[in-house]
Amino acid sequence: MSCNMLAHRMILVLALLGFAPARAWATWSIVAVDRDTARIVVASATCVPLEEPRSLKSVQAVVVPGVGAAACQALIDGSGRNQSLVFEELRKGSEPSEILRLLRVDPNLEQRQFGIVDMRGRTAGFSGAKNGRSALDRQGRAPGTEIFYSIQGNILRSDAVVTSAVQAFVATQGALTDRVMAAMEAADRAGGDSRCTCATPPNAAAPCDGKTSHVAYILMAEKDDPLGRSFNDGTYALYLSVTQSNIQPSENANPVKTLRMRYDAWRKTQPDSFR
Fold first, then answer.
1. Which of 67, 96, 100, 273 is the most buried (most CB within 10 A)?
2. Element (H, E) at 125
3. How many domains does the chain fold into?
4. Cα separation of 50 and 101, whole Å?
């Protein structure tokens, strides 16, 4: 790449980022792709009581069906410029490590956290030094598969939240969504986000078992799912979102447990060939 081209690209990056201040949102997330099926799955949970339309997905996830996905978290860029940069670079085919390099011009970088995976099996993660206790990311490949992942979290109960999620992800058999749900549950059991419990409002009118977040979601994008107008508002094959306001009395105030209930109900509607 010529010096002029590189300079032009960096100017575009600076213009995209803008660096608007944002609130710090602790969370954990799983980003994964299956090269055999071309499916992408992203899931996450947090103790910040977000509600639709400003959901956790809307501020965190980056999804390019058939290409790759990312989670942009910790100190969320409320302007969406970081997320837009990641989205556009994934569409171009840029390596995840190169995308992280482009993000390094952000003066708030040490308060950010990123996990990026693409359909070529390339992964990258970054956890800034100012993300509070137990901020870490892990990338890898499920042995014997074409499944690649990035699992990350910050302000967690302990590092075991991420390491337990990784262990569950690689050990679980079945569809990519099955692996991601197992990882979400493992993170929840390990303590999840350190800032909320069943005693922490808001509280849904439902039984509460070991709550470690206020909201949770899972999405799956098929290769041909259409893009939307932004970096994560396409029409995806699966999107389940649990918030304290939409939990039913027959469900559980722990969003991950309710996410499991709703996921299992959806899973039963899928053909035997779904894997």
1. 96
2. strand 123-127
3. 1
4. 30
Beta bridge pairs of residue 152: 29, 137
- Considering the chain, what is the average pLDDT of its residues? 91
Question: What whole-number distance in Å separates Cα of residue 172 and Cα of residue 160?
Answer: 18
**Structure-token pair, residue 163:** 């390491």
Beta bridge partners of 140: 149
In a domain, 253, yes or no: yes
Q: What is the CATH classification number for the domain harbouring 235?
A: 3.60.20.10
Over range 70-98, report the average pLDDT.
95
What is the pLDDT confidence band of residue 273, given thresholds at 50, 70 and 90?
confident
Residue bearing the bigger pLDDT, 84 or 13: 84
In the Cβ-directed half-sphere of 224, how many Cα atoms lie within 13 Å? 0
Q: Is residue 275 part of a domain?
A: no
Residue whose token pair is 């027959």: 250
The pair of three-digit structure tokens given for residue 179, joined into one six-digit string = 């692996």
- Domain-located, residue 143: yes
Q: Give the integer Cα–Cα distance in Å for 219 and 232.
A: 10
